[in-house]
Specification:
The chain crosses the membrane at residues 28-49, 61-80, 87-107, 113-133, 154-174, 180-199, 236-254, 260-280, 300-317, 344-365, 377-399, 411-433, 445-465, 485-505. It is found in: Membrane. GO terms for molecular function: peptide transmembrane transporter activity. It is a multi-pass membrane protein. One of its GO terms (cellular component) is membrane. The relative contact order is 0.13. The chain folds into 2 domains: 14-209, MFS general substrate transporter like domains (Growth Hormone, Chain: A, Up-down Bundle); 290-516, MFS general substrate transporter like domains (Growth Hormone, Chain: A), CATH 1.20.1250.20. With 517 residues, the protein is mainly α. It is globular and about 70 Å long. The protein has 19 helices and no strands. The longest helix has 34 residues, at 73-106.
């Protein structure tokens, strides 16, 4: 581990500036291309399709891409923890990321080339996603961990600073200068991000990769599942086996649902089966593994339940760049305005809400005798996302009725959704790092990002459902359009998730896994 003067006790590490600068440029590049992806697909790349199918196909491509972005953190976290360390993994994955942006700019009329670029960006962006935030946490120890919350908030603030300008400008560049320029600018910013990160290489605290550990999380789970006790059955092993069989069986539906959906369902079944089975038999690992390691593994499984309950939030949040943009095209607006620019409201409000919450709202709640803990904030955030979708569903009902409606009305659901985002996402970054055992911080942060993959899986399943005539016939009986029905469905999904999250959070005991020195 590198020890540098910047680690003076109780002070903010200077090297944080390089990581924050890198994140601002990288987020501009990511959101710059992501926020114009749906309109580009509808108006250019998918023109070969019938108009009635184009919008749903564009949403499928968008959410499949997001699934990839938030799936590959599993790979990045594993490579960093076991082989290369966070710094080197981030640097090399960033170069893959740059290559993906180059493909988008060059192959604007080639589906193969463009989708190859999306794949490379998903690999690069996903590979570094769990590591940059975790790398921030590595720069702190017990002497200055009280400053970590401020830095995680600043980290999230700079994400939104980059996202704001990307969301505001890139739709205009796409409209006036074409896809090559609109996708090329984010690529240039990603190259700048890589250089900025490289410049701080001599000042970073670099924790070495974790060597093979006989008490690793996976080994503890295996011991818990296979260990026999005289006179006792192994129900956990049967649950794990059922999870494996369900994962394999999911692929039988690949022809109907598509490979991405069944692969995600298989992953969910595998994690649920193995994790649930190991939880039932975790005490059998004691004696073969240290008590601290077994307690750490049990805590990881408890964290994964928290993560699972946040997935409905992400199914709602990511649709602002697909479903909400499509709705914006049906609303009235000035001729110079592009519906995708409404997404700039999200990062702008985040930059305002983070300091407001920390300086005004949270202190006020404490003075009133209510402590806004991480889990309480996340519960409220999921509920606010549900309220946002009730509002946007109401707007869709008005649009479907034929009444003209200004796009300004979308400000209200954006405000509600963004407030929910600050309470869930900004809080979740710090929560995930603090709850992760030292040997698994990269992997646990990867599981935090996997919540977005599962959230987007729910969107793909909902889109697949509305292709079924029986489902659409039942929706028609409600008097709502398919789009409006889906909006109210997702709102109910989030509100039920908030209830379940709140009930589970009341029993959760938080731990402190910041390093001692």
């Amino acid at each position: 581990m590198n020890i540098t003067p910047e680690r003076a006790e109780g002070r903010l590490p200077r090297q944080i500036a390089y990581i924050i600068g890198n994140e601002g440029c990288e987020r501009f590049s990511f959101y710059g291309m992501r926020n114009i992806l749906t309109p580009f697909l509808i108006t250019t790349l998918l023109l070969y399709m019938p108009e009635g199918q184009r919008t749903l196909a564009a949403k499928d491509v968008f959410h499949t891409f997001v699934i990839g972005v938030y799936f590959f953190p599993l790979l990045g976290g594993w490579l960093a923890d076991r082989f290369f360390g966070k710094y080197h993994t981030v640097l090399w994955m960033s170069l893959v990321y740059c290559a993906g942006h180059a493909c988008l700019a060059v192959f604007e009329h080639s589906r193969l080339g463009f989708f190859t670029g999306l794949g490379l960006i998903a690999l690069g962006a996903g590979g570094i996603k769990p590591l940059v935030a975790s790398f921030v946490g590595d720069q702190f120890d017990q002497s200055n961990k009280h400053l970590a919350k401020m830095v995680f908030d600043a980290f999230y603030w700079i994400i939104n600073f980059g996202s704001f300008f990307a969301s505001l400008l890139m739709p205009l560049f796409l409209h006036h200068f074409g896809a090559a320029v609109a996708f090329g600018i984010p690529g240039a910013l990603m190259f700048v991000a890589t250089v900025v990160f490289w410049l701080g290489r001599r000042q970073y605290v670099m924790l070495p990769p974790t060597p093979p550990d006989p008490n690793a999380f996976s080994r503890i789970l295996r011991t818990a599942l296979v260990t026999r006790r005289p006179g006792q059955a192994r129900p956990g092993l049967w649950i794990a086996a059922a999870g494996v069989l369900m994962a394999l069986g999911a692929f039988a539906f690949a022809g109907t649902l598509g490979f991405v959906i069944v692969a995600c369902l298989a992953l969910v079944a595998l994690i649920g089966g193995v994790g649930g089975g190991a939880w039932l038999q975790m005490e059998r690992a004691r004696g073969r593994h240290p008590d601290a390691a077994v307690d750490g593994a049990r805590n990881v499984l408890r964290v994964l339940v928290i993560f699972a309950l946040t997935t409905p939030f992400f199914s709602l949040f990511d649709q602002k760049a697909s479903t909400w943009v499509v709705q914006g095209h049906e609303m009235t607006m000035p001729s110079w305005f592009q519906p995708a620019q409404m997404q700039a409201l999200n990062p702008l409000l985040v930059m305002l809400l983070i300091p407001f919450n920390n300086l005004v709202l949270y202190p006020l709640l404490r003075r009133l005798g209510y402590e806004p803990t991480a889990l309480r904030r996340m519960t409220a955030g999921i509920a606010f996302s549900g309220l946002a979708w009730i509002v946007v569903g109401g707007l869709q009902v008005v649009i479907d009725g034929g009444d003209p409606l200004s796009i300004v009305w979308q400000v209200l659901p954006y405000a509600l959704l963004t407030f929910g985002e600050v309470l869930v996402s900004a809080t979740g970054l710090e929560f995930a790092y603090s709850q992760a055992p030292t040997s698994m911080k990269g992997v646990v942060m990867s599981f935090w990002n996997l919540t977005t993959t599962v959230g987007n899986l729910w969107v793909l399943l909902a889109n697949a459902a509305v292709r079924n005539e029986t489902v659409t016939g039942s929706i028609a009986g409600t008097g709502l359009s398919v789009t409006a029905f889906q909006m109210f469905f997702f709102a109910a999904f989030a509100l039920l998730a908030a209830l379940a999250f709140g009930l589970y959070a009341r029993r959760y005991r938080e731990v402190d896994n910041y390093r001692a020195v």
